[in-house]
Design goal:
The protein is of the alpha/beta class. The protein contains 15 helices and 28 strands. It has an eight-stranded parallel beta barrel with strand order 10-11-14-15-16-17-18-19, surrounded by four helices. The chain is globular, with a radius of gyration of 26 Å. The two termini are 47 Å apart. The structure holds calcium ion. The site of calcium ion has 9 residues, from β12.
Length: 669
């Protein structure tokens, strides 16, 4: 989701305390008196007595179910009139199990019958999702599904997150993958590029990431599933059916069971490889307003409005949902629970999470932990515009300490290390801009309180907003904005490719050694670019697909990333779990050298075999010298090279830190 302007807005609203356009607290409206239905049989259930339809629509004057033999272009084979029932619902039943049939609802509202809708709880759907489908979900389970499990995660800081779009990952001819752009792409072992380097799932195993974070994979609106040869591309931040997979990622969008089965096969293949699956979820807005499935089911209820009745728009996409209303909050909670139960999803990334209220997010985290304690939740702690929801109730970055088991992206470390996202030419710490040292330190301590970090000097948030490192996701790029490769090209005019790769290594070394949870954008390990396109949400594959032959061209870059990840995974000192541990074990060196940050992680932190790790980041184009205590040090990283088990040894003393590079040394005694 594009966040342009959002960070500034969100921050300004908290820091400045100004609310433009809305009276604070103005979300308690007429909908608060609507009945709430918490039954688990919403919309469709099939049992030995037949097929049952239950639609929640308190203000409908009448409701109908249309039954179909096929997913599109055919008239209904039957129409069922629904009867008003308890807690705002309407019900209809037939004595047969209607597996193989499709259905839609229509309600009478304001004297008119509204357009048909598959409802908001379609768990299966046909082409373009316009008709919901009745399928036996148990028959979509791949072999061995009952025993399928994702990786066990003690703390979110143990995760290494890899953000990936299905088409980016597999569409390029060099991927060697058969099922390009499909869920099944991730199920293919032994794929290679033109030089024999591993691609696909084998590449992920080689890289060592713990979790793949897949961009929206629920059924979204934009790509025409009836015309797959057109090869349309979209990120998918235009939700249509929240509880069914996207059809264009399946081999047959017309067969509703196929997308379900193939997505499960993808998840099982990743789990079998020891890799978890995080799903990007976008409950904060819908693709349509009056014609969305929410509006056609219970008009008005699911969205926030301005005092004049128009849709408020904190998403920047034309509307925003109203999580603070019980039936909407329950929808979000029950939807993620469904994905966790039925699809074994290991984590959720909430788009524009600050549009949701902190109470709902707390319910999300608590309910998911009951299903699987290893599930984690993180999100964008900002909005893309103002909202009627009061600032103190928003799941903002600055409110993360009010939430339990929720993490937020650190735009602090992101913008400090590589330069501001909104200005392509702006440089950051890793590209030689002085004055960002304190914000880099804020990133290193995961925005927790630390006696040597002065938040007032921070570039963005002015206080230690995280109560623990598990609340912070560190990154320097994602699908939004320029890739790191493109950002470096635009902000380092006249540089060589080697210069830029060096800067990328330094930037990611800061991310992957910082406290909190590291996150990377797919393909950066081979220095992928997007030809300078910063908002590629519907750009063609020629912009978005990763050229896997870069793994050969940039082999040293890949090796660096792989070793960096190995270093983090081998050493719990980089993965502390409490703010107290961080404050006690991280000691910054007092230095006033511009573009230099130097610190130690001491005391065998978090049970590490290393007694002390010294990290020096030199973002300037000049070599710098630092004094290190005498000792038996192992050199882990130096001059743009890294090896988790050591590049050599040093006795310490006066050491040179080469331009645009990290020096990491460690000692066990
Ligand atoms: Ca779709």
């Amino acid at each position: 989701m594009n966040e342009h302007i959002t960070t500034i807005l969100a921050t300004a609203m908290v820091v400045g305390g100004t609310l433009c356009g809305f009276a604070a607290g103005n979300t308690d409206d007429r909908y608060s008196t609507w009945p709430v239905y918490d039954g688990s049989d919403l919309e469709l259930s099939v049992d030995s007595n037949g097929t049952h339809f239950t639609l929640w629509s308190p203000e409908a004057q009448a409701a109908r179910v249309f039954l179909y033999d096929s997913d599109r272009n055919t008239p209904p084979v039957d129409t069922l009139d629904m009867s008003r029932s308890d807690r705002g619902t309407w019900r209809a039943s037939v004595p047969q199990q209607l597996y193989g049939k499709f259905y839609t609802f229509s309600i009478k509202y304001g004297k008119h019958w509204l357009a048909e809708t598959p409802g908001i709880w379609a768990k299966a759907a046909g082409t373009n999702g316009r008709r919901a489908a009745i399928i036996d979900l148990a028959r979509t389970d791949p072999e061995g599904w009952a025993d399928d499990k994702g990786p066990r995660v003690g703390n979110i800081t143990d995760a290494v997150l890899y953000e990936m779009h299905h088409r980016d990952f597999s569409m390029h001819p060099s991927s060697g993958i058969v099922h390009k752009g499909k869920f099944l792409a991730m199920t293919e072992p032994n794929t290679v590029n033109d030089y024999g380097d591993k691609t696909g799932i084998d590449h992920l195993k080689e890289l060592g990431v713990t979790h793949v974070h897949i961009l929206p994979s629920y059924d979204y609106n934009s790509v025409d599933e009836a015309n797959l040869p057109a090869n349309q591309y979209n990120w998918g931040y235009d939700p249509y059916n929240y509880n069914a997979p996207e059809g264009s990622y399946s081999t047959d969008p017309a067969d509703p069971a196929v997308r379900v089965r193939e997505m499960k096969e993808m998840i099982k293949a990743l789990h079998d490889a020891g890799i978890g699956v995080v799903m990007d979820v976008v409950y904060n807005h819908t693709a349509d307003n009056d014609n969305s499935n929410f509006s056609l089911t219970a008009p008005g209820y699911f969205y926030r409005h301005r005092p004049d009745g128009s849709y408020s728009d904190a998403s920047g996409c034309g509307n925003e949902t109203a999580s603070e209303r019980r039936q909407m909050g329950d929808f979000i909670v029950n939807s993620v629970k469904y994905w966790a139960d039925e699809y074994h999803i290991d984590g959720f990334r909430f788009d524009l999470m600050a549009i949701h209220d902190t109470e709902t997010m707390n319910r999300v985290a608590a309910e998911l932990k009951k299903i699987n304690p290893s599930i984690f939740v993180y999100g964008e702690g900002w909005t893309a515009g103002d909202s009627p929801l009061p600032v103190e109730r928003r799941a903002l970055k600055e409110n993360v300490s009010k939430m339990d088991g929720i993490a937020v992206f650190s735009d602090d470390i992101r913008d400090a290390v590589k330069g501001h996202y909104s200005s392509a030419e702006d440089r950051g710490f890793a590209t030689g801009k002085p004055g960002l040292e304190e914000t880099v330190k804020i990133g290193i301590v995961a925005s927790t309180a630390h006696p040597q970090v002065d938040y007032v000097k921070g570039n963005n948030s002015k206080f230690a907003y995280a109560a623990s490192p598990g609340m912070i996701i560190n990154y320097v790029s994602c699908h939004d904005d320029l890739t790191l490769t493109d950002k470096l090209a635009k902000s380092m005019p006249g540089s060589t490719e080697a210069d830029r790769q060096r800067a990328a290594r330094l930037a990611q070394t800061i991310v992957f050694t910082s406290q909190g949870t590291p996150f990377m954008f797919a393909g950066e390990e081979v220095f992928r670019d997007k030809k300078g396109v910063h908002n590629s949400y519907k750009s063609p594959d020629s912009i978005n697909a990763i050229d896997w032959n870069l793994k050969h061209t940039n082999a040293e870059q890949f090796d660096y990333y792989r070793e960096l990840i190995a270093l983090r995974k081998a050493h719990p000192a980089f993965r502390m779990t409490t703010a107290e541990d961080i404050a006690r074990n991280i000691i910054f060196d007092n230095t006033d050298i511009p573009n230099l940050v130097s610190y130690s992680i001491k005391n065998n932190a978090n049970g590490d075999e290393w007694k002390e790790i010294k990290l020096v980041f030199n973002g300037s184009a000049e070599a710098r010298e630092v004094n290190v205590p005498e000792g038996d040090w192992t050199i882990i990283a130096r001059d743009g090279r890294i090896k988790a088990t050591g590049l050599g040894t040093t006795r310490g003393g006066r050491l040179t830190v080469e331009p645009t590079s990290a020096l990491i040394i460690a000692r066990s005694k």
